[in-house]
Write a structure and sequence with these properties.
Chain lengths: 350, 235
C-alpha cells in the first residue's frame, strides 16, 4: 500500500512536470504552469492516503516551478515572498483535499460496517427462528413423556421419540453449518485446507452419510469411472453435497427421484444435484444463496425448516474454493443445483 | 457373546454425555467407570485396569493428545476418541499418536457399540499372537490370508501383491478405522507424502474389483480425510 502511494504520487508529479514542459516550451503559455501544478498536487492528495504524499508533492512542486519554469530557467532563485506564497497555496489545497478524502473513506467504511451489522442481525434472527421450532417440539415431547408418559400408547410414545430424534438431528446439522460459517468467514477470512481428494471417495462418503440420515430416499449416482483427483477441503465439500441433497428432501415437494452427477472438463469439476419435485419459485431464485429471505414470511411450521442457512453455507464454501454455484429449474420439472471446483490450484494459494 | 467382563473407562467432563454413555454401556453388559479429568483418568486407568478407554479430547485439566501419550506409555489397550466434527485435524493427530479409533459427536448407541466391539476384538486378537486368523469372512467376501486368495460370491478375484496386502491389512483390523499414514507405513514403510496418491489409486482398484459403487458400498468404507474402514467380520 505504501509503495502504491509512493508510485501514484511520483507518477502524477512526473506527468505534471511533463505537461508543464510541453505547455511551456511548445505552446509558450507560462500562465498555465502554476495551475497545472496545483491540479497535480490536488490529484496526489486525492489519490494517496494520509497527508504525507500531498505535502511532499507541494514542496516538490514549489521547487520544480522555481527551478524549471521561472526566470532564471533551470536554476534556483529564491525570491522569498513568491516561494512562500505559492507554497502556502499548494499546502492549503493539499491539506483540505487530504482531509476530505480521509473523511469520505471513513464514511464509506462506516456504511459498509453498518451493512455487515445489519446482515449479522438478519442472520441471527434467521438462526433463532430456525432453532426455536425444533427446540419447541423437542421440549414439548419431553414434557409429555415425563409427565404423562404412562397414559400414552406405545405407538404415541414411539412417534414422539422419533420426532425428537429427527428434530435433534436437524439441529445438529444446523449447528455444523453455523460452525462452518464461523470457520470460513471468521477473523482473517478464508482458512480452507485443500488436499487432493478422490472423486469416488468423496461421493461414497457423502451419499452414504445421506443414506444413513434419510434411508427413505434413494440417490441415483452417476460419476466417471476414471480415477479423478480434485483439490478441495473434503469435509466442507461433503457438507455442500449433503446440504444440497437435504435441501431437496426439505423443499422439493412430490419428488420421486434425486440424482447426484459429477463430471470434469479441462479446468474444473462440475457437480449437480437434481430432483423432479416442485422446483424453485421464481421470486426466490435470485436470492437463493444470499440466504435468509423469507424466514419472516415462512410460518413456523414444524416440517418445513428454512434451509436458507444451508444454501448460503454452500455458497460460502464454494466461493472460498474459487468455484461457482448456481440453481435453476429444469425444463422437465424439478430443480437443479450445480457447483464447480477448479482442478488446478491457483498459484497464489500455494 | 458375553461382555460382562469388559470394563470401560469413560473420560468425559460433560455430565450429560457422561451419563448417556454410562447408560448405553451398562445396558449392553459393559462395566463403565467414569473419570471427569485427565488426572483422574490416569489414576483410574492404573488402578482399575480397564479393557478400553473412551476419551473426549477436550478435557478441563490437560490436552487430550497428551493424555493419549501418557496412557500409551503405560497400557496397551484400545483408546477410542470421542470428538466433535469440527476437530477433524485433532482426530487424525490422535489416531496417529496411538488412539485406535474415533466416534464423532453426536453418535448413536449402535455406532458407539460397534466401535467398542471392533476395537476390543482387534485388541484380543493382537494379544493371542500365537495363532493369527486364517480366514476373514464378511457378507459374501472371503479372504484366505495363508493362500492369499480373495473370493466374492464364491468367485475368485485376482489382486496384485500391494492390493492384497492393503485388503488383508484392512481385513485384519475389520471394523476399525485405519488412517492413510498407518496403511502407508505398514505397506510401504516410511511416510513419503507421495504415497498417499499411490494408496488412493490402489484403493480405487480394490473397490473396482470388489464391485463397490459409491453410495452402495458393502465392504470398504471411506472415512473422508482420515482413512478407510472394512466391514466388521461376522461371528
Amino acid at each position: 500500500m505504501k509503495q502504491n502511494n509512493f508510485l501514484t504520487a511520483l507518477g502524477i508529479e512526473a506527468a505534471t512536470f511533463g505537461v508543464c514542459l510541453f505547455v511551456d516550451f511548445f505552446l509558450n503559455m507560462k500562465v498555465l504552469t502554476p495551475m497545472i501544478f496545483i491540479l497535480g498536487v490536488f490529484l496526489i492528495a486525492r489519490y494517496t492516503e494520509g497527508y504525507f504524499y500531498g505535502i511532499a508533492a507541494s514542496i516538490a512542486s514549489v521547487l520544480l516551478v522555481n527551478y524549471a519554469f521561472t526566470f532564471p530557467y533551470f536554476a534556483f532563485d529564491f525570491a522569498p515572498t513568491v516561494s512562500v506564497l505559492s507554497a502556502t497555496c499548494m499546502m492549503t489545497v493539499t491539506i483540505i483535499t487530504s482531509t476530505m478524502t480521509t473523511q469520505i473513506k471513513r464514511q464509506s467504511q462506516m456504511k459498509a460496517e453498518g451493512q455487515k451489522e445489519k446482515m449479522r442481525a438478519n442472520l441471527l434472527r434467521a438462526i433463532s427462528h430456525d432453532l426455536r421450532t425444533p427446540l419447541t417440539s423437542i421440549r414439548g415431547a419431553c414434557s409429555v413423556l415425563l409427565d404423562d408418559g404412562a397414559s400414552l400408547s406405545d405407538e404415541q410414545r414411539q412417534t414422539l421419540l422419533t420426532e425428537m430424534r429427527e428434530n435433534s438431528d436437524w439441529l445438529v446439522r444446523m449447528v455444523e453449518n453455523l460452525l462452518t460459517v464461523t470457520r470460513i468467514s471468521g477473523d482473517g477470512g478464508v482458512r480452507i485446507n485443500k488436499t487432493p481428494v478422490v472423486l469416488e471417495e468423496l461421493t461414497e462418503s457423502a451419499v452414504s452419510k445421506f443414506n444413513r440420515q434419510h434411508p427413505e430416499h434413494h440417490v441415483r449416482v452417476e460419476i466417471p469411472e476414471e480415477f479423478i483427483l480434485i483439490p478441495m477441503d473434503a469435509i466442507l465439500i461433503e457438507q455442500v453435497i449433503l446440504n444440497l441433497l437435504e435441501n431437496a428432501v426439505q423443499h422439493a415437494k412430490g419428488m420421486t427421484e434425486l440424482c447426484f452427477y459429477a463430471h470434469t472438463t479441462e479446468t474444473e469439476a462440475i457437480f449437480e444435484v437434481e430432483d423432479d419435485g416442485a422446483g424453485i419459485s421464481e421470486d426466490r431464485l435470485p436470492n437463493l444463496f444470499s440466504g435468509y429471505l423469507g424466514s419472516e414470511k415462512t410460518p413456523a411450521d414444524n416440517r418445513k425448516h428454512n434451509m436458507g442457512i444451508g444454501l448460503s453455507v454452500c455458497s460460502t464454501i464454494i466461493h472460498a474454493h474459487d468455484g461457482t454455484i448456481s440453481a435453476e429449474n429444469r425444463p422437465e420439472g424439478g430443480a437443479r443445483f450445480r457447483f464447480s471446483l477448479p482442478l488446478e490450484e491457483k498459484k497464489d494459494e500455494q | 457373546m458375553s461382555n460382562n467382563k469388559y470394563r470401560i473407562l469413560v473420560v468425559e467432563d460433560e455430565h450429560s454425555i457422561n451419563s448417556l454413555i454410562e447408560a448405553i454401556l451398562t445396558a449392553n453388559g459393559y462395566q463403565a467407570i467414569l473419570a471427569e479429568t485427565g488426572a483422574q483418568a490416569q489414576i483410574m486407568a492404573a488402578s482399575f485396569q480397564p479393557d478400553l478407554i473412551l476419551l473426549d479430547l477436550g478435557l478441563p485439566d490437560m490436552d487430550g493428545q497428551e493424555l493419549i501419550r501418557l496412557i500409551r506409555n503405560e497400557l496397551s489397550i484400545p483408546v477410542i476418541v470421542v470428538s466433535a466434527r469440527a476437530d477433524e485435524q485433532d482426530k487424525v493427530n490422535a489416531l496417529d499418536l496411538g488412539a485406535s479409533d474415533y466416534v464423532t459427536k453426536p453418535f448413536g448407541a449402535a455406532e458407539l457399540l460397534a466401535r467398542i466391539r471392533a476395537n476390543l476384538r482387534d485388541c484380543m486378537r493382537n494379544r493371542e499372537k500365537g495363532m493369527p486368523e486364517e480366514m476373514f469372512h464378511a457378507g459374501e467376501l472371503r479372504i484366505d490370508f495363508g493362500k492369499r486368495r480373495v473370493t466374492l460370491f464364491e468367485q475368485e478375484i485376482p489382486f496384485t501383491q500391494t492390493e492384497f496386502n492393503i485388503l488383508a491389512l484392512l481385513a485384519r483390523h475389520a471394523g476399525k478405522v485405519l488412517t492413510h499414514e498407518t496403511i502407508i507405513k505398514t505397506i510401504w514403510g516410511g511416510s513419503d507424502p507421495g504415497n498417499v496418491k499411490k494408496l488412493q489409486v490402489n484403493m480405487a482398484n480394490i473397490r473396482k474389483k470388489l464391485g463397490e459403487k459409491p453410495g452402495a458400498t458393502r465392504y470398504i468404507f471411506t472415512e473422508i480425510g482420515v482413512g478407510y474402514r472394512m466391514l466388521e467380520e461376522e461371528n
